[in-house]
Amino acid sequence: MLGFHHFGTFLLFAATILLLVSTITTPVVDRMAIAKASLRGNSATVNFGALGYCIRVAGSSDACTKAQVGYQLPQALVNLAESTGVLSNTAENAIEATTKALILHPIACGVSFLAFLIAALSDRLGFICAALIAFVAMLCAAVAMVLDIVLFYVLKAYLRKNNIGSLVSVSYSVGTWTTVAAFCCLFIGMFFTLCACITDRRRRRRGEKY
């Protein structure tokens, strides 16, 4: 019969997969992103990921950065801002600092995977250990989720300050939603794993009576 242990372990595994999806966003998988900046009336799109970005233009190959910790604003958006004659780079530093902090996505993924392994291979005290590690992974995922939202707003701030907000639209993408889903899985999975320790102890006591 399925118990707290099985549900908790499954949720930790699901969180790991979801965080892996967030981690392998562009430039690893160029069609997946955390946020997108699309030029209105144009077929060009900039996909922002955890480890870089890709510029996609219909009819030509994608131009992507290498996978790295932190990256600067794409030159295509800088050039567009310069064309307005009102260039303001106050948001550029915020964008670079935010993208550096996106390294929390793979960190949260790794910690979540460790929690899953311990939950899958342990009993009783192991469940407590798995729950504590899941709690750490949940905190990392929570900060990563906030950073995804911050990236969205600092991009919009840059566009607004340079008077190109009407030319470029920014939207959330799959990487943000998988991070949100992973946070929820870790939050619930942590409690299920902790409850597994209690139920396992009661089951052992019943076994000793008989």
Summed up, what is this model?
The chain is α+β, with helices and mostly antiparallel strands and 210 residues long. The protein has helices at residues 4-23, 75-83, 92-101, 104-121, 125-161, 174-209, and strands at residues 35-39, 44-48, 53-57, 63-64, 168-172.
What is the average per-residue confidence, as pLDDT, rounded to a whole number?
87
Q: Report how far apart the termini are.
A: 20 Å
**How many strand elements?**
5
CATH class: Mainly Alpha
CATH architecture annotation name:
Up-down Bundle
Strand arrangement within the widest β-sheet reads: 4-3-2-1-5
**Outline:** elongated
The count of domains is 1
Helix percentage range: 55-70%
Strand content: 5-15%
Largest sheet: 5 strands, antiparallel
Low-confidence stretches: none
The CATH topology assignment is Butyryl-CoA Dehydrogenase, subunit A, domain 3
Can you offer a commentary on this structure?
It is a single chain. The model has no long low-confidence stretch (mean pLDDT 87). By secondary structure, the protein is of the alpha+beta class. It starts with a helix and ends with a helix. The protein has one domain: Butyryl-CoA Dehydrogenase, subunit A, domain 3 (Up-down Bundle). The chain contains six helices and five strands; from the N terminus they run αββββααααβα. β2 (44-48) and β3 (53-57) form a beta hairpin. It has a five-stranded antiparallel β-sheet with strand order 4-3-2-1-5.
